[in-house]
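Why show two proteins at once? Because comparison is the fastest way to build intuition. When a single record is shown, students tend to memorize it. When two are placed side by side, the eye starts asking what differs. So, the first record is below.
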Amino acid sequence: MVGLIDCDNFFCSCERVFRPDLVRKPVVVLSNNDGCVVARSPEVKALGIKLGTPYFEVLRDFPNAGIVAFSSNYSLYGDMSARIMSILREAAPDVVQYSIDEAFLDLRGLDTEHLRSWGQELCRRVERCTGMPVSLGIAPTQTLAKAASKFAKKYPGYHKCCMIATEQQRRIALGMYPAEDVWGIGRRIARHLECYGVHTALEFADRPRAWVRSKFHVTGERTWEELNGHRAITIEPLDAVVRQTIVTSRSFPGMITDRRDLQSHIANYAARCAVKLRRQHSVCGQITVFVQSNHFRPDLEQYNAGAFHTFLTPTSASNELVGAALQILEAIFRRDIHYKRAGVMVSDITPAEGVQTDLFTYDPERTLRDNRISRTIDSINSRLGADTVVLGSQQYAERASDGRAIKFVNAIRRAMKSPDYTTQLGAFRV
């Protein structure tokens, strides 16, 4: 059997742990620059507010609903996720973290007869130790476990743990489960299925294998097998996935016309990409920079541009990536444009071991020095906090109220951000 544990309304629940006065009150968490709703409490869902709704529309349409909004607090959410995962690893034989708020549990070797009571106790333990409500689905396959977790979250009678163990339970559960909610199907394929009279997961699972393969190819066939109780999907751990493309981009709180301000943003985006490369022990062979004007302002001149640079010897050194990104920006920058968004993408990613060097331009001593500097910066920032040490080009001209330089994490609008309760000693005030 396999389990899928899913945190209930994860971002909102993280905020409520340290604000118990907000339990059973409408809470939303907003995207970068406090733009759109990215997380909703059940009370907000009941109001009909959809994910992605602009926050100004929430204020306009629900002025008296008492909705409490928070800016995204990624430090808090990441730490709360790590605490939950540590509890799961103590309880289950094997844990594969799938996302910040989900993990698959390999339950082989556990007593099947008492598995549901074990799962209920695990959910209680997580909430008791962290304050975070979670739901657990248990079934023979990952896809069925995902469906079971939805039932555990929706119906209180399961006491946070739903188990699909028998053929009868499987058919009843899939008969109640819309096809578009099945992990691996989604709305686009669901609309295709509706044309063939398939509306539920059971109707899809009862179709012949040959029909499924002819219409939805091998990925659809794997989902079909999973729904029929045969494990066909392998889940890679979140920290083991090697990304082939890494992108860091942001919309700015306002609009930028100054070259130096834009350079600082681009330098920080490139540095973030470099850190992500080193975390997965990779190097990149190409870097792309793009800039965009505000397309919501037709009264202003519109401008979208991008360009790339190819490294003859692949690299992950921060100074090389930042230097190349700034050279690209210099080539595509235009005066008198009101820039609203920019980003950096690294591609042609390969393992850092056994890099194919360029015969004419490769300098082993410089490469060794640059890599040592980058690793040293990573180590210091890991111990003392993000942006403790940065490259000079990453510094913002603007200063905070205390006179210190603005850090990258504070360069976007987060006017309603909660304190970093679990990672900063000064978050609690006596």
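Second record. Ask yourself what differs from the first in the token line.
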Amino acid sequence: MRAFLKYEAVVAMDRNAALGAVSDALGAAGGWIVDHMLFSDVMATIRFALPGDRTAVFENALAAAGLKVEPAAVGNGAAAELNGAISLTFTRGTGDLRRQVPAFS
């Protein structure tokens, strides 16, 4: 079975700043976003792919941005590409983020 990276963080910063920090950390580590899910302004899940030998770079970039995560138990030193996900829970989320949906026929 292939290893899967799983990170979780409780975030007190602005939602957009936190999402940008994750994107920047992935870019700095040579990774990319595969998919994302936004659960109003309460939670976000970002699925990504990352070179296995760059997990420490990703974790350090998250820490530098103020996102504290537990280091991954897998992947450090592995050259193969790894898939993973990071879940962000926003402490200031109201659960009432509404978006305009354009009309279509």
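One difference worth noting in the second protein: The first helix runs from residue 15 to 28.
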